[in-house]
C-alpha cells in the first residue's frame, strides 16, 4: 500500500514532534494521579504467606507499621518532588524539542503526590484507631471497598 502511505504523508500525517516528551510528562502525571486511589483502596502489592497465620492483633500492628512507613515515604516523595519542581522552575529547564517548561510536569505530578500523602496520613491514623479499638474500620484487603 505504498500509494496510501504516500498520500497520507502528503496530507501531513507523520511523526509528532516531541511525542516522547509528551508521553514522558503524561506518564509521570498518570502515575501520581492514580496513587491516591491505590493508597485509599490498599491496592499496593502485598504477600501474606507468613502473615495469614498470625493472630488478628499481630496483623493490625503490622498493617499500622506499614501504613505509617507508607505515609512517611509518600510525604518525603511529595517534598522532594516539590523541591525538584522549584529547581526546574528556577533554572528554566525546558524539554529539548517542544521547549515547554519541565516544571509543568512536576507541578501536575505534585498535585497527585500531595493528595496521596494526605490520604496516607489519613489511612495511617485510621489504622492506629483500629489498633487501639481492636476493630476494623477499613478493610485490610481493600481499603475503602471502592
Write up what this structure looks like.
- The protein is an all-alpha fold.
- It has four helices and no strands.
- Helix 2 packs parallel to helix 4.
- The termini are far apart.
- Residues 142-146 have low confidence and may be disordered.
List the helices and strands and how they pair.
Layout: H1 2-11, H2 19-40, H3 56-91, H4 103-133
**Beta-strand share of residues:** under 5%
Using only C-alpha atoms, the radius of gyration works out to 22 Å
Report the biggest beta sheet as strand number plus sense, adding barrel if it closes. Answer: none
Shape: elongated
Structural class: mainly alpha
Q: How do the SSEs run, as a string of H and E?
A: HHHH
Q: Which stretches are poorly predicted, pLDDT < 50 over at least 5 residues?
A: 142-146
Distance, first to last CA: 49 Å
Q: What kind of oligomer do you see?
A: single chain
Helical segment count:
4
* Average pLDDT: 89
Helix fraction by DSSP (H/I, runs of at least 4): 55-70%
Number of strands: 0
